[in-house]
Amino acid sequence: MDRIQKYIGLTAVFLLLCGLVFPADKARADTRIFLSKGQSVYVPIYSHIYSGNREHPFYLAATLSIRNTDAVNPVTITTANYYDSDGNLLMNYLEKPIKLKALASTRFVVKESHKAGGSGANFIVKWEADKKVIPPLIESVMIGTQSQQGLSFTSRGIVVEENQ
């Protein structure tokens, strides 16, 4: 009997410690929906990354993807500016604003041959809406191949300014 009680006691302590280390509220996804009338979003772009001991550049093509996640309302993309690693404007990808209907998307491609961006390149994307909407998903997809090696990865944008 003492052995069973000792086992139950140790199990209870173990489960208590697991609850402290892995709290349930951190494991759940955040289900809150944030609404906005517009934002400025910083999106990392890697026109190349480095490999090997000599920091050999691995050149990449990059796609800036902007997806209107609001199922009802449109958003307007007003700016899609591409900057190099030193913060210098390389290109404005928009001649005029683009209106994305509900659930629509657009993309801008930085070719692999466009090497000026560097490993710290980025886009600043600005968008706005007539009323508060679910913010668009803005991310980049980088892809490249060398010899028989292929590489692809994504990076999400972060909000750097909220429109009032």
Q: Summarize the main sheet.
A: 6 strands, antiparallel
The assigned structural class equals mainly beta
CATH class: Mainly Beta
Poorly predicted runs of 5 or more residues: none
Task: Please state the oligomeric state of the protein chains shown.
Answer: single chain
How many separate structural domains?
1
CATH topology: Immunoglobulin-like
- Please count the helical segments: 2
Helix-strand sequence: HHEEEEEEEEEEEE
Distance between the ends? 67 Å
Report the strand count: 12
Shape: flat
Helicity level: 10-25%
Query: Any idea what the CATH architecture is?
Result: Sandwich
Provide a descriptive summary of the structure in words.
The protein is mainly beta. 15% of the residues lie in helices and 49% in strands. It contains two helices and twelve strands; from the N terminus they run ααββββββββββββ. It has helices spanning 2-21, 24-27, and strands at residues 36-44, 48-51, 56-59, 61-67, 75-83, 89-92, 98-100, 105-110, 122-133, 137-146, 149-156, 158-162. The strands form three sheets. Strands 1, 5, 6, 7, 9 and 12 form a six-stranded antiparallel β-sheet that branches. A four-stranded antiparallel β-sheet has the order 8-4-10-11, with no helix packed on it. A two-stranded antiparallel sheet has the order 2-3. The longest helix has 20 residues, at 2-21. The protein is flat, with a radius of gyration of 23 Å.
Highlighted features:
flat; Immunoglobulin-like; 4-stranded antiparallel beta sheet; 2 helices; mainly beta
